[in-house]
Please model this.
Amino acid sequence: MKIRKLTAVGILMIVLGAIFLYRTELVTFYMNTFLNPNREASIDSSERNEYYTGANYFYVQSTNNFTPTSKQDLKNIYYTVLDSGLDDFTFYCDDNYKDCLKDIKDLSNDQITLSHINNFVHPFNSFKNIETEFDSLGKIVIHVEHTYSDDDIARINRKVDEILTTIPTTDTQEKIRAVHDYLIHSTRYDSERTDHNIVTYESDNAIGPLFQGYGICGGYTDAMAIFLTRFGLPNIKVASENHIWNLVQLNQQWYHLDVTWDDPITTSGIDTIEYSFFLIDASKLDEIDVDQHQHDFDPTVYEEATI
Model:
């Protein structure tokens, strides 16, 4: 009897030891099997809004794989969620991706990288604020607060329709030029905001230039991006440390377009329009920005802008 008791105790100790040794794997198995039986995340085409592009870039690519195994997979998921116009999205780490939670924590706290990803989506799908929740079992939830409300979007689209009726040309480059000129003629640079942090207008987004007559680089760029997309042109926003402008693809070639810098502030206060930054290639941008360094972007992020 004593031997049987010792044997039972021994077996129990072995079982408990095995449970302790493989506790992480056992908890994961339990959670995956019983509490989260369906961990396959997806985005149905019906969930995407009309501003979804599905475009692929050097830096980020549209994906249908929402079980990440690398940091690049995580960036692609963030990009795809934003590009789809979603407010919330839940996905799970791959069980074999050991650094997943560390990488998601790093990425969710990296506002520079998230802002870069934001520049590859339509302005209407861009975020004003983005938050990420995650737990120790690899469940990740992205929450997106968009820059533009539904009312904003409807209002802007009506304004774009109105402006386009005044552009008679069908030539693509001339249409871009007409919008470039319209934005410059109807907008003043919001120096009070940039120089004194006095916020009177929504000059950092398209509402400022299109409705209030004031803009900073973010406002000029968003407004132009909306028109470029209306023209059916692939385009992104390119950001340096303290500036942002458009990059648009025409005839398979990428061109820089900076409406802000073509709308200079003059000492006389007289409106002036320039074309120094109108549809120029990367080499021309380097040539004319050699002293100011306002267009020093990260080529590993915006590789299209170097071509």
Summary: Residues 2-21 form the longest helix (20 residues). The mean pLDDT is 90.
